[in-house]
Amino acid sequence: MGINRFIFLSISKNFNDILIYKTCNLCIVICTAEGYNKRQMYIVNIHSPIFKEMLHMSKNANANALIIGFAMFAVFFGAGNLVFPPLIGLMSGSSWEIAIIGLAISAILFPIATIIAVDNMGGTVQAICAPVAKWFTKGYMVMWIIFILTCGVPRQAGVGIESGLLSVLPGLQGNDAVRIALLAGYFVVVLALTFRPSKIVDIVGKYLTPFLLICLVVMIALAVFEPLGTPMAPQVDNVFSYSFLQGYQTGDVAVGIAIAGMFVASIKAKGYTDTSARHKMTLKAAVVAFLGLLIVYGGLLYLGATGSSMFDGKMDQTALLNGLVHALTGSTGNVILGIGIFLACLTTTIGVGSTIANLTVDLSDGKIPFKYMMVFVCLFGLAEACIGVQGIIRYTFWIFIAIYPVSIALMLLGVFCKYVPNHGAWKGTIAMATIIGLFEGLMQLNKSGITNLPLDSLIQLYNHIPFAADGFAWVLPSVIGFIVGTVIVKSKGGDPYPMISKEQ
Question: Which pTM was predicted?
C-alpha cells in the first residue's frame, strides 16, 4: 500500500492529535498519537458519517475561527466605545504608539483573555467564580447588572443620539430639549422591539457590524494616507498609564467574564467538545478578534492624534469624534457613520437591556417579571442619559475604576489557572484587588467633584503603595494576597480545590 502521512486537526469523537494514513480510495487508518506501538488504530470508510464530519471540521477549522472571532469582535466592538480612542489619541499626540499599546492591553487583550480564562475553568461564569466563594458568582452577576445598568445602557443611548442621530441632523445639535425628546423616543423604540420582537432587529444586527466596520476602516485608511495634521506633544505626563486606565471605560473585561460562557458554548456546538481542540479554536478566534479591535481602536486613536493641533482636549468626546469625522470626510461621512452608530447603539441596548432583565428574573427566582424590569431599565437609562455622554462618563468613571482590578485579577487567575496552587490564592488575590479597587473608586468620586469624602489620611497611606502613581496600586497587594492565601490553605492541608471536586 502506498501510505501518505498527513496531520489532521484535533477534533472531537475522542480522537486527539489524530494521524491519518490513506490506504486506498475507500478506507483510511486513523491512529491516536501516542506512538506506533501504543496508538489505537481504526479503519474508517471515507463515506462513513464520522469521517465526513471529521473532514468537514478540518476544512472549516479556519472558517470557524474567523466566524467565532468575528462574533467576539462584534460583541466587544461597542459603538458606545468609539468616543474614547480619539480622545486618547488627541491627548497622547506624538506618543500615540505608546498609547495604542496601553489601550490594546486594557481594552482589547484583557477582554478577549476573559474568554480564554472562562474556557480554562470549565466554560461558565460559575466555574471561574467557584474557587473564590460560593456566593461570589451571584455577587459578581449583581455587580455586572448594576454596572451595565448605570454605565452601559445610558451611554449607549447617549452616544446613539449625540454621535449618531444628531450627526445626521446637525441643525438640531446643541438643543437640549430636542436631545431629551430623541432619547425618550429611543427608549420607546427599545421597549417596542423588546416586547414585540421583530425580524428588523435580526436583519440590522446581521449586517450592521460589517457596515460600520467598513465605514471605520475607510476613515482609518484616510487618516493614514491623508492625515489631518502632525501629532503634537502629549498633553498627559504618563501616556501609557493614561491610555491603559482610559481603556477601563470600555467595560469589556467585566462584560467578558459575564458573557464568555456564550462563546465557549458556541465553540462546543460547532463540534469542538474535546478540551484541547476547544482551547485551540478559542485561541484562534481570540487572535482574529484582537486584530479586528486593534485596527479599529488603534486607527481611531491615530485619527485623534493627527487632529491634536486642531481640537481642544477638553471638548466633549462625542463632539470630538464628530469633528474629526467631519474634518476628514465632510458632512457625508458624518451622515453615514452617524446612521451606523445610531443603529448599532439601538440594537446593543435592546440586547443588553433584555439580558439585564432576564438575569434579574433569574436572580429573583421569577419574583421580578421581565416586562417590569425592562421598563425600569429604560426609565433609568433615560433619566441618566439626559445628563449627556460627558456627564455620564464623569459620574460613572469611578465605577469602572472600582470594579476593574477585581475583574482583571479574576481574568489573570483563569488564564494562568494551571499555575495557581489552591483556592486560597484565588481568595487572597480577589480580596486585595477588591479592597484597592473600591478605595480607588472612592478617590475618583472625590476627584470628579461628585463627593468630598474625608480620605486624606488613607490617601497618604495609599500613595506609599508601589505603582500607585501610575494607577496600578492593586498589583502588589494582589500578589501578596495570592501568596498569603496560598500559604494558609497549604498549611491546613486537604484538597486544594474542594469546591470544584464536589461539583465534579
Answer: 0.82
